[in-house]
Write a structure and sequence with these properties.
Layout: H1 4-71, H2 77-88, H3 91-111, H4 117-193, H5 195-208
Helix pairs in contact: 1-2, 1-4, 3-4
Length: 220
């Protein structure tokens, strides 16, 4: 007949084993959760670093676009006049216009046409033509800044999408780890809680075959 002491030893061993398995499952789930959380934190840190790195380029793109719109009249006539006036009064435009006018006068002086009507007409047309050329050049310079800002903003957006996808994956890993740990712990503990019914079933089976059951936990 089965020894009651043996039954107690088996039950105790199963209890300890079940507790160890449950604890191990919980610790494994915790470790994986913490690893995924560190991964999420690092992904966010990297995205913040990329955004901060591209911020100066993104910031310059918006104002450049607004100035482009002002130059071509999209911001209204007042904004266009202000943008053109700012160009015309700039040090760069003044220096170029002055150099051009001096070159015209020097050329006319050298050819003896300083007092002619042609020189006066050339001087009268020079500044408006120069201003138009400066507007075109300024628009092109601003276009470069606008493109740079647009590309930088797109880079931040792409980094954000990629970061979101990676974080979503890591959060899924956290859920899987916690669910797996809970299931493993549940299986380990359910085996422990089923021990009494298993022993009772074994005892009744022995009785059915003519065995004697002692009053204690186990068999006589």
């Amino acid at each position: 007949m089965p020894n009651p002491i043996t039954g107690l030893v088996v039950a105790g061993s199963s209890l300890i084993s079940g507790a160890i398995q449950s604890d191990a499952a919980g610790r494994a789930a915790k470790a994986q959760t913490e690893a995924s959380e560190r991964g999420i934190e690092e992904q966010r840190r990297q995205f913040d670093a990329v955004r901060e790195l591209l911020k100066p380029y993104v910031d310059v793109g918006g104002p450049a676009l607004q100035q482009q719109q002002a130059l071509i009249g999209m911001g209204g006539p007042e904004a266009q006049r202000a943008a053109i006036a700012a160009l015309e009064s700039s040090e760069l435009f003044e220096a170029r216009a002055r150099q051009g006018e001096e070159a015209i006068l020097q050329n006319a002086s050298a050819t003896g046409g300083l007092r002619g009507g042609n020189i006066q007409g050339a001087l009268g047309q020079f500044r408006p033509a120069m201003l138009q050329a400066e507007i075109d050049r300024q628009y092109g310079r601003l276009a470069g800044l606008t493109t740079l800002g647009q590309q930088s903003a797109a880079g931040v957006g792409t980094a954000g999408i990629q970061t979101g996808a990676r974080i979503s994956t890591l959060e899924g890993d956290i859920g899987s780890a916690q669910a797996g740990g809970a299931l493993a712990s549940g299986r380990a503990l359910s085996g422990v809680f089923n021990l009494p019914s298993q022993f009772l079933g074994l005892q009744y089976g022995m009785q059915g075959r003519g065995g004697n059951v002692t009053p204690g936990f186990g068999f006589g």
